[in-house]
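[agent] plan:
  1. take the single chain provided in the ticket
  2. run structure prediction with default settings
  3. attach structure tokens to the ticket
  4. add a short note for the reviewer (M.T.)
[agent] executing step 1
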Amino acid sequence: MPDNATGLVIFAHGTGSSRHSSRNRYVARELNAGRLATLLMDLLTEDEERIDIRTRHLRFDIGMLAERLVNAAEWCDVDRQVSHLTIGYFGASTGGGAALVAAADRPRSVGAVVSRGGRPDLAGAALPRVKSPTLLIVGAEDHPVIQMNEEAMRALQCEKRMEIVPGATHLFEEPGTLERVAGLAREWFKRHLHSRGEEHA
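[agent] step 2 finished; step 3 output follows
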């Protein structure tokens, strides 16, 4: 929670590992440096995470993950530290699809969505209902996911943009690629998120 924060970004990762993901922690620090508050959370309980490691099915339960993101946003709406901030979602992998479904369910209160190497196609029928400005970031070497993001782009009816990061694979482990993701995300959220008091300024 930086001083004079201008927005709040909730992170979503399909495996439930957002709170511990080194990549998400790095992006969160970069957003904090841009005066954006961040919330990293586990979308799966410890028991669910153990089950998902074996079955790999809960990470694809987009409805359940989206519901938990909505619950997190509703909690933030009544928390005095952050209730004045517009909320954004940063989704990775299947969390990208969950973030878009959650945004479709809260069209007036989600200011922006960013998906990193995400599966926005998994949002399915919710895509045309998304009103939040949406940025899809994909690695240039992540060929199957590029196609999935292109399909989602065609279905989205909101302000939207797709950025392909040169040389990056799915996890953005190549030098400089995660830094590019963080810069793009920070720019997008800074443009679209604000203190709710500024809406009428």
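[agent] step 4 note for reviewer: The longest strand covers residues 110-116.
[agent] ticket updated
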